[in-house]
Amino acid sequence: MYNNDELFKKINHIEFYVSSAKTWSYFMERGLGLDLKAYSGLETGNRGKSSYVLNKGDINLVFSSSMEKHSEINDSISLHGDGVRDISLEVDDIEFTKKHLESRNIKVSSIKEEKDDNGKIRRAVMQTYGDTIHTMIEKGDYKGFLPGYREEDTHTADTGIYKVDHVVGNVYEGEMDQWVNYYIKNMNFSQLVTFDDKMIRTDYSALRSKVVKYNDNIVFPINEPAQGLKKSQIQEYLDYYNSQGVQHIALKTDNIIETVSKMKQNGIQFLQTPASYYDTLTERVGNVDEDIEELKKLNILVDRDDDGYLLQIFTKPLTDRPTVFFEVIERKGAKSFGAGNFKALFESIERDQAMRGNL
After folding, report:
1. Is 85 a member of any domain?
2. How far apart are CA 251 and CA 253, in angstroms?
3. How far apart (Å, rounded) are the C-alpha atoms in residues 313 and 250?
4. Do 192 and 330 share a domain, yes or no?
């Protein structure tokens, strides 16, 4: 039957609670090059909320807004602004997973079964850091996204992203280990890597980070702020989100130069990197296949580990609050998370923090 290695399969979808799902859907289509895959709203019999599912490859991002005066969605937006509510995990056997979690004293909702012409699914919900949840879904042979959604077939210009590489959470200072242990001891995740505040710091700010993963499809770095001369980007997030929560989602591509070029043409704004970063790039990371001048023009960062190298870049915050953003990442063998880029990245973020008056 099932064993401890079969609690979870992959990320099924990531749901945002937002003030206007239709606006976010348009932004994701035109900016990131995602396709509208499914829709739920008044036209499908959903009187409470409107949801748009944006897809490319294994990426499924859901944007939901409320059509009611008083609702969980509106309460969330009032407190946090637009942001991630649910990192949904697909499971093989919802009863097995629920029983395992409850044996670890994790509260799990009752299992709810939903049906339509495409078959049936079963789901249950558990809490994680802040107001973030994991909806666990057993899909079986269900055809389609989820019951209650109308399938759509809108195609936009492809930017090359196709998978969620990792999802990063920010938690309060002193609580990172608690949440790392939550995933390891209760959900059978393993710890992949640790970064302390001596590794991840600038002259002004610092953070600590640990990465937990269940398999190659479910990877969660967890950050906490550390004491520095000024406010770290993690603390800025916590202050404006008014809670712990998802800081960013890393989207994987196999050609980051092409992807970032297209996204910039689409109006996506990325963090800027000082030109001096590229003066000693090959000395730090060795030779790379890409043209250094092209990387410099696009502000793409490079780091290397024992398995190869990676290329990455981060968007500016997606909302008026300095909270959630995206990362674009290409892996050329590397399994790490760009530790060698943290100083350059933080300095870029700090320049924007200073302009906001929050450094």
Report:
1. yes
2. 7
3. 9
4. yes
In a domain, 1, yes or no: no
Instruction: Indicate whether 3 belongs to any domain.
Output: no
Contacts of residue 198, Cβ cutoff 8 Å, sequence gap at least 6 = none
Give the amino acid at 145.
F
Kindly report the number of other CB atoms within 10 A of residue 1's CB atom: 5
Domain with 14 in it: what CATH number?
3.10.180.10
Query: Of 149, 92, 152, 90, which Cα lies nearest the Cα of 117?
Result: 149
Contacts of residue 11, defined as CB under 8 A and 6 or more positions apart, other chains included, come to 58, 60, 87, 88, 89, 90, 164, 167, 217, 218
pTM over the 0.90 mark: yes
Q: Of 151, 169, 204, which residue is a domain's last?
A: 151
DSSP 19: S
pLDDT digits (tens, 9 = 90+) for 208-247: 889 999 998 999 999 998 876 567 788 999 999 999 999 9
Query: pLDDT tens digit string along 281-325?
Result: 898 899 999 999 999 999 999 999 899 999 999 999 999 999 999
